[in-house]
Amino acid sequence: MKKFILLGVMQFLGWYSMYAQSVQQGEFEFKTSDSVKLYVKVAGKGPVCIFIHGGPGQGSRSFEEMKGKELEACFTMVYLDQRGSGKSQNATNYHLSRVIQDIEELRRYLKADKPFLLAHSFGGMLAFNYALAHPANVRALMLVSVTLNMLSKTALTEALQYKKELLGEDTSVSATLSRDTLWQLNVEKMTALRKRGLAYKLLSEDTATIQKQMAIDDYKRSQDFAIAVLFKQEQYPEYTKDYIPFTQQLKIPVLIIAGTADHAVGIKGYKTFAFPKKTVSIIEGGHLLYYENNTAFKATVCDFAQQH
User: Using an 8 Å Cβ cutoff, are 294 and 308 in contact?
Assistant: First the structure.
């Protein structure tokens, strides 16, 4: 038995030494090539893992403080606030290509050779497109409760049905409804849920979880990126594009983590992802499963990374 344990430790140390990299630690501002100052924090030991937060416009702070930092035992975690998000500076350009360039410029600045990419929610769209553009620069992609098509009719229908259920309404939804109509109905039902104090259920069944997130995010933070994505769709149409058909083109290893009760991005969407080298893990929990079920989350991510 001791021999097997020793062998396992030696294998881990071999993996650790192979991919561990020395990068600048601590909090700092990173200035992009178009002079936008981005907030970055680096902490932990092991191979570099860049965290791509969701929102849009969320910032990395709540993930880090809601047990995301547990991953620092396995990785050198790089927490990046995207332009116009969290503690980062607002910008005039929020195009997807520019956000992808931000990630690449930061990777080069850190001298991080083939880091892991870990993305949550809306961040999945950003991380996937970065990996598609720079596959040789990514060790593996790890997608947690992500969407790759914000306006999918399937996802919008599922979300609408859940909102109507919470409101005590008939959950039937006509298959003939257009995408725009489904979007508008979702907005209307979300407004009704907020009035009744039930909107939190799309993220978690536990009000304490949402209260904790709100308390952590109660600081002066930018949400300019969110405004651009959600309210300037004509200017930034790339964020309403369906990227699922392109998943078959990405040849690097991909971990997909989905929650059993994730009503923010839906509980079925991940099944349409066609990554050639995908690993799927279903974890009990909602959209914030990394906090609600951190033990399983950490084990899943660290074990996957060790194998790749």
Answer: no
Sign of torsion over alpha carbons 177, 183, 186, 192: negative
User: In terms of pLDDT, which residue wins out, 21 or 266?
Assistant: 266
pTM, to two decimals: 0.90
As a whole number of angstroms, the distance between CA 169 and CA 43 comes to 47
Question: What are all long-range contacts of 238-243, with beta carbons under 8 Å and residues at least 24 apart?
Answer: 238/95, 238/96, 238/97, 239/56, 239/96, 239/125, 239/150, 240/150, 240/151, 241/149, 242/148, 242/149, 242/151, 242/152, 243/125, 243/128, 243/129, 243/148, 243/149
Residue 4: band (very low, low, confident or very high) from pLDDT cuts 50, 70, 90: very low
- Tens of pLDDT, residue by residue over 288-307, are 999 999 999 999 999 999 99
**pLDDT at position 169 over 50:** yes
Q: Where are the domains of the chain?
A: 15-149+223-307, 151-202
Contact 83, 58 (CB under 8 A): no
pLDDT tens digits along 195-223: 999 999 999 889 999 999 999 999 999 99
Which structure tokens are listed for 175?
């298959």
Q: What sign does the CA torsion over 267, 272, 273, 277 have?
A: positive
- Domain range 15-149+223-307, CATH class: alpha beta
The CA distances from residue 103 to 33, 98, 107, 212, 298, in Å, are 11, 9, 6, 28, 24
